[in-house]
Amino acid sequence: MLPAGCGLAFLVLPLIGLLARAPWATMPDRLFSVEVGQALRLSLVCATAATAICLVLGIPLAWVLARAELPGRGLIRALVTVPLVLPPVVGGVALLLVLGRRGLIGRYLYEWFGVALPFTTAGVIVAEAFVAMPFLVISVEGALRAADPRFEEAAATLGATRWYTFRRVTLPSVLPGVVAGAVLCWARALGEFGATITFAGNFPGRTTTMPLAVYLALETDPDAAIVLSLVLLAVSVTVLVALRERWIRGAI
User: Fold this and answer.
1) Sequence-separated (6 or more) residues with CB below 8 Å from residue 130
2) Which of 6, 132, 158, 186 could form a disulfide with 51 if both were Cys (CB 3.0 to 4.6 A apart)?
3) pLDDT at res. 151
4) pLDDT tens digits, residue range 213-235?
5) 92-146: per-residue pLDDT in tens?
6) Cα(149)–Cα(127) distance, rounded to whole angstroms?
7) In terms of C-beta density within 10 A (0-12 exposed, 13-18 middle, 19 or more buried), how is residue 2 classed?
8) H or E element: which one contains 155?
9) What is the distance between the alpha carbons of residues 114 and 79, in angstroms, rounded to a whole number?
10) For the packed helices 106-113 and 88-99, what is the interaxial angle rounded to 10 degrees?
11) What pTM does this model have?
């Protein structure tokens, strides 16, 4: 019991310290300040947009990993999960090398279409989607593997097309996994720091999300950093409450 108690204290005491040092008297004024409002609004918009991208790209990818018979599927799965273990700063550097103005793809985007992703709000969304998509793919793939394929086979024998079967049979059966993955993906995107600051920079009102605002405020206004940290803590707790057992069970 003693090691377990020490482990719990190790995880909980920093959060208690954050609450104990919070400037409660000036909390309302700081929460409604322009800087906090800009960072929070930008974080919510970018995290939501990144999650939408992950849903559009991640669900088909999860289906391929769970159902398609492809050579090298294990390697593909390993590549999909690389952002989970890759240092976010390295991910940001990789994005710069590919999507920067002189990158492998970015040079053509800039020369042909005048599109430059680094140091823009769109760059924040791309960076967040890159680090968050594996959470969605893993959750949806697990749900697809746990789903009974006989319902899909029955729909096919009745003449349903593959797209119709996916929309009306497969997707409803794995919806808990999709929801759980989307929530985890959104929370990960909201808290992303390393890849964002490397690929998109730190420009107030354009690329300064909540984690970047915490880092910036810690050097000049520690109380503001604590307030911003509490906002992110509240979001994290809300995510944990949203991912109650029935959603997690559906994702496994």
Assistant:
1) 83, 91, 95, 195
2) 186
3) 74
4) 888 888 888 888 888 888 888 88
5) 999 999 998 888 998 998 889 888 899 999 999 999 999 999 999 998 988 888 8
6) 35
7) exposed
8) helix 150-157
9) 30
10) 40
11) 0.86
